[in-house]
Amino acid sequence: MQKGKPFRKIVFHSTGPYPFHAPSHIAAPLLSRKQAKLIAIVCWIAFAVIAAGIASNALIGFDVTGMLIWRDAHLLPTGPYALYGLAVSLTALGGVLLRSVITVAAALVLWRLKRGHAAVRFLLTVVSGSLFGLLVKFAVERPRPQIVPHLVHASGSSFPSGHSLNSALLYITMALVFGAFAQSRALRGGLVAGAVLLSLAIAWSRVWLGVHWPSDVVAGLLAGTAWAFGAAALFQKIDAAASPGGSKATAER
User: Fold this and answer.
1) N- to C-terminal Cα distance for the chain?
2) Do 71 and 148 contact (CB within 8 A), yes or no?
């Protein structure tokens, strides 16, 4: 670097509904508003189908088979003991304590980076989705499975799985928010894919540990994913309405 020349200022580009700088250089979002909206709609439809199946007892066979398929004669999961440690660690990532710490930490990072707008949207998405899950739990009041031992403590209603719903909600939303720092579209897609895989692993841990029916975790994953992408689509719509016609046309694609 030549003497006297200042350091080059680093600018983080926005990739969609969670803006990271002035809108003059907004990069194309990972998904268009219509694509994010379509994902949300498909997930909500699938969630409704599962809820109807549970109400009509049509999923009993699926749930019982899913609970017993990997268990021995004593109804304990098969596999090495290390698998138990893995399941407990994964389920902790979807628990209230770690989720809360991660949520607050992510919001503080955004705030420290002077991305308060993105921090507020992130918190609104995660908190509102979590409240939705609690409301559904209270409304449905499905008992937890009792056909196998519970290998960790679990309380409250079973449907939908709060760990699954909130994991998909938090980690997918984080991937969308922090993916805005990545210039590579492949990296942004990889972050979302990683968030989905982590959510699937957490959902698996809840069934493996005996505290949720398979349909509980599938419904939770669908609802959390729908909420995350639905919020992204909503924020893109809000931004389009507040921007000049060119930006609105981009968001509509």
Assistant:
1) 42
2) yes
